[in-house]
Specification:
about 190 residues, mainly beta, Jelly Rolls, five-stranded antiparallel sheet, 1 helix, globular
């Protein structure tokens, strides 16, 4: 019995090691003094599409809210929502695998953790996971303007798209637009 348990543990560890963990923190993005559309296929080799996300260097943009924290080593952050929401730009964004990736064909990733804040005012964000169009699950987190690291559900092992939907804040007199979500870093595992 001990050998079976040991063998299962070894195989599980081997399976985890077979996946490459990718840490994304936007440190190598070019400086952006105003919000710029997030380029697809970032970072190199991961083949992600960034729909409706913008990146900016927080200390250089006068429109950045308190959730665009600038620390001792400031670097770009990625965000969705806030004043960038228009009729042409939806108030939600998605991170998804490039459907045209040829070699090797990666069909899914496993989101591990993400460091987030709200850009201007505290709000909630709902993150919905899909695997090639099939619903995997959803979580809603309460964001403040202080960055916090969140763990994705362990059951989200095969994901091809994450959709970020900040809540709408219609009752705030000064800031009546959509909520926002600022991403500082993101850890995922690729097979």
């Amino acid at each position: 019995m001990k050998r079976i348990v040991l063998l299962i543990s070894f195989l599980a560890a081997l399976a985890l090691c077979a996946s490459a963990q990718t840490y994304i923190d936007f440190h190598d993005m070019p400086m952006a003094v105003t919000p710029s559309p997030m380029p697809d296929l970032y970072p190199s080799g991961v083949n992600l599409y960034w729909d409706s996300f913008f990146y900016v260097t927080p200390g250089t943009w006068d429109g950045a809210g308190p959730g665009f924290w600038v620390g001792p080593n400031p670097h770009d952050v990625v965000f969705v929502g806030g004043p960038m929401c228009t009729l042409a730009v939806p108030c939600s964004g998605s991170i998804k695998l490039n459907p045209l990736q040829l070699l090797p064909p990666v069909r899914f990733f496993t989101p591990v953790s993400i460091t987030l804040s709200a850009g201007w005012l505290p709000n909630h964000v709902t993150i919905t996971a899909f695997n090639n169009g099939t619903y995997v699950g959803a979580v809603t987190w309460a964001l403040t303007t202080t960055p916090h690291t969140y763990q994705f559900p362990a059951s989200w092992r095969h994901v091809s798209q994450l959709v970020f939907t900040p809540e709408f804040i219609p009752s705030h007199a000064v800031y009546s637009q959509a909520g926002s979500t600022v991403i500082y870093s993101f850890i995922l595992m690729m097979p």
